[in-house]
Structures are given as C-alpha cells and as structure tokens.
Amino acid sequence: MTQDAFEIIGEDRASRWLVTCDHASNRVPEEIGGGSLGISASDMARHIAYDVGARGLTLALAERLDAPAVLSTFSRLVIDPNRGEDDPTLLMKLYDGTIIPENRKAGAAELERRKAAYYLPYHDAYESLAARRSDTVICAVHSFTPRLVGRAERPWQIGILYSHRDERLAKPLIERLRQEPDLNVGNNEPYSGHLDGDAIDRHALAHGRPNVLIELRHDLIALEEGQIAWADRLAPILEEVLAETGL
User: What pLDDT score was predicted for residue 153?
Assistant: First the structure.
C-alpha cells in the first residue's frame, strides 16, 4: 500500500518486528515548488535529501524477518519525519553546506501545511502498525554519509543508535556485532541516538517497545547487491540477539 506520505509493505506478516525507514525517498511532491526545492539534481541525490540505500535495505530486511515495513515517500527536506514536531530542524533551510531555497522562504503556515500533508500521516501509519500487537519490536533503518563537508572520514561500516532511556536491545546487539572480525561498529556513532520527539521516542520509548536504530554507511548499501548482503547478514543476528535478551 502506497500513499502520498507513506508506503506499507507486508502489513499481514506475522513477525513481532516492525522495520521502519524514515528517510526512504528523495521525492518532492508536485505541489511544493513544482516538484523542486530549488537545489540541483546532484544535491537531491545526496544524503541531505534521503538516506541512500536505506529503502532497499529496509525491504530486504523486513522480508527476511517476515515483518511489516513502513517507509516515508517524501524527502526529508520536505519535512523531516525523524524530528519532533517542535524541533527547529523539522524543515531544514541549510543542510551540509547546501541552502534549500524553497524552504528558506517557507513560513509557519507552510510548515503546518506540510506537517498535515506528510509528517502526521506517516506517523499515523507508523503507530497503527506498531500497535498491531502488544509485543512489537521496532528496527529503524537509516544510512549515513561516509563524510560530511569539511569533516573527517567516518570509519564505521555500521552504527547502532539508541536512547539512554532504553538500551535493552541495542547494547547486546553492539556486543554481538563486535564479534564479527571485519566490522567497525559505532556505539551511538556517527551521532547520538536520542532526540526528544523523534520517531523512536514517539513510537518506541513512549510505549515501552524494545527498539534499535541501525545506521549503515551508505557506500555499502547504495546498490541492491549490498542491500541484500547486509539484510542476509543482519536478519539472523537480530533474531539471535532478540531471543537471547528475552525481551
């Protein structure tokens, strides 16, 4: 099922896992600047517009976990579904050195319009899936750029992000992944895993649902081959760690 703000795959799958992708798409709806935010196609293909490779990894991982998946269908530059409703970065006007012209001129009324059209429908769909059973476990899939403008190279292949309010699944997962000799695993790297009001806060922490946020370096999952390989690798590890925690 695909709608203007979200896509649901495998709604009837049996697993207690729910796999989510907040930044799955770089689409700009036609009603916003005629489908353009005023930046180049090359900028729209960058991480500033979406999480490169995350959609394909989400679908492959959800299939292997026999889990439903919910994905956004609009660019994070339209409005960022992984930010709280009062977060000042909800509608980005400057991101990693790129000014976003269509957002620069957007005022409070436009922010509220985008929130009603895209942000809230995505979160409504997310919550509906999360509430389908009482023992839901959320796995959020993201990707990160190998290097921000003017910053050092990021060495991790994978980062496991989590809130200090719930480390039950993330910490054991980090320990398990660090047993893999070829992996450099980030513990709340390349950034902290907690933002008040973000998607995990809203749908996992607020309801006591076990959760983990996985970030893959996007050069590793930009192509389908990498997405499938990482899904094949991560799915059994996720199942193993969840079983061992007894959550």
Answer: 81
